[in-house]
Design brief:
mainly alpha, 7 helices
């Protein structure tokens, strides 16, 4: 006799014994109670066989608070990046001064060009596409209704600066 057949016989015998015992002790109410328990058990077994088991969700690490008092410059750069796409005013007053400092430093160290004294050569090295973003002669915008600079454009400019 196979193991599976033994399990079925044992389960059937136990069910029959439970039915007889419940009928002897509680009458019809006992039979209804055992049938209800058997029905719920059958539902649980069939559900576990039909539906694939889901893995347990990974435990989340407790969030460790990040104290920005140790890194104020990081917070300023993060805020400037966040607000850059919102409007031209946000870009010009937040991200643009940072980009101009980075551009001036990179041009001076890699190409020997002063961004402020020789904007023509700087423009040729930076490229026409990105020059309006770092042109030191352009006054900052006060217009919050004009869209800002998308993050992918900023990323491309920084890639261009890194390639110098």
């Amino acid at each position: 006799m196979s193991e599976r057949r033994k399990q079925i016989l044992i389960a059937t015998g136990a069910g029959a014994f439970a039915l007889l015992l419940s009928w002897a002790v509680a009458g019809t109410y006992g039979l209804v109670g055992v049938c209800a328990v058997a029905f719920v058990g059958a539902l649980i077994v069939s559900r576990s066989r039909l539906l694939p088991s889901r893995p347990m969700p990974a435990r989340r690490r407790r969030d460790v608070p990040f104290v920005n008092s140790d890194f104020p410059a990081y917070r300023r750069i993060q805020d400037a990046l966040f607000w850059s796409p919102i409007s031209q005013r946000h870009f010009d007053h937040g991200m643009r001064p940072l980009l101009m400092r980075v551009t001036a430093t990179r041009l001076a160290s890699r190409a020997g060009i002063d961004l402020y004294r020789d904007p023509t050569r700087a423009r040729a090295v930076i490229g026409e596409e990105y020059w309006p973003l770092v042109d030191p002669r352009v006054p900052p915008s006060q217009d919050s209704n004009v869209g800002g600079v998308p993050l992918n454009v900023l990323r491309n400019l920084l890639d261009r600066l890194e390639s110098l």
